[in-house]
Amino acid sequence: MKALVFHGPGQTSWQDVPDPSIKDAADAVVRVDAVTICGTDLHIIKGDVPEVTPGRILGHEAVGTVVETGGDVRSVRPGDRVLISCISSCGRCRFCREGHYGQCRGGGGWVLGHTIDGTQAEYVRVPFADLSVHPLPSAVDSYDAVLLADIFPTSYEVGVLNGKVQPGDTVVVVGVGPIGLAAIATAQLYSPGRIIAVDLADSRLAAARELGADATARADEQPEQLVEDLTDGLGADVVMEAVGVPEAFEMCTRMVRPGGHVANIGVHGKPATLHLEDLWIKDVTLTTGLVDTYSTPMLLKMMAAGRLPAASLITHRFELGQMEEAYDVFSRAAETGALKVALGGPRHDTLTVQTPGK
């Protein structure tokens, strides 16, 4: 099959690799029908995630069709269309039993495209399939559903829930790429008083306004002053960092009010300064987190009911073989206006499913 392979910082290629196969009775092999690129993938290529070693197939978000299952898999069978979660769960360790699947110690957590081969390929092996894939109702489009693999549960759990957004709150989202835009969409479930979006790209600020942001500011044009003006000098109740650079994180800590919450969502590859000389007296709560995806079933129900603005987040579509072109467009988002790119499209092969026992 073809797959996008990481060869070290700044080096990837779309190339032939061996087909995946069942390695454990809990595995499923899935044909990839729709896949997307995450900002985390860009961090990996930059060298910010050293656990990803050369030779790894990238990607952790996809929708596909099950072609083979191990003997222990019960929730899906060959031929089923499924959402592949960015998080795998063994279901047995302490953290999985507590619903903290991202911290799985039984071989799960964020493994796809990280410590095992990922989804930016024609086929992918998914471990712990019973708990790591979700059957999709026919009413949900594959290109919409792929946004539930990562960005919607991440923004909702790590941003909105960790930030404890409440009715009437002033919420600031710093960085309105796909994660930040999904945070704006899901924050509105809690009726905040206002949402302020901050970014360097005018196209992303325009998208933020379309999704419900009440005010926007360029990151290089005194957004802290705007927050101060709109809150009578108090500061924001909740500030979410969705960039992953020190300057953005430090800006967030300056925007938050006494007693407020800073929810860090971004993937950081460099140290950021925590100004405790200013924050120690402010009763500020700072949270970090890797998504657990416990909210995925609920978000899937909302999507099936038409309650999530998924389609507007996908700005570019490519066929699977155009992976390198898709990366180029996504990595130059300020120039191309890309939000989320999706790959899939027409296929010319024949799907063969393998029935257990035959």
Walk me through what this model shows.
The chain is of the alpha/beta class and 358 residues long. The protein has two domains: 2-150 and 293-344, Alpha-Beta Complex (Quinone Oxidoreductase, Chain A, domain 1); 153-287, Rossmann fold (3-Layer(aba) Sandwich). It is 27% helix and 24% strand. It has 13 helices and 15 strands. The strands form three sheets. Strands 3, 4, 5, 6, 7, 14 and 15 form a seven-stranded mixed β-sheet that branches. It has a six-stranded parallel β-sheet with strand order 10-9-8-11-12-13, with helices on both faces. β11 (236-241), α9 (246-255) and β12 form a beta-alpha-beta unit. α5 crosses α6 and α6 runs parallel beside α7 (202-211). It is globular and about 60 Å long. The mean pLDDT is 95.
Features:
six-stranded parallel β-sheet; Rossmann fold; Quinone Oxidoreductase, Chain A, domain 1; 13 helices; 358 residues
Structural class: alpha/beta
Helical content stands at 25-40%
Mean pLDDT: 95
The proportion of residues in beta strands is 15-25%
Helix run count: 13
The rounded Rg comes to 20 Å
- The overall number of domains is 2
CATH architecture of the largest domain: Alpha-Beta Complex
Number of strands: 15
For the record, what CATH class of the largest domain applies? Alpha Beta
Principal-axes shape call: globular
CATH superfamily caption of the largest domain: Medium-chain alcohol dehydrogenases, catalytic domain
According to CATH, the fold-level topology of the largest domain is Quinone Oxidoreductase, Chain A, domain 1
Point out poorly predicted stretches: none
Termini Cα gap: 23 Å
Query: How are helices and strands ordered from N to C?
Result: EEEHEEHEHEHHEHEHEHEHEHEHEHHE
Largest sheet: 7 strands, mixed
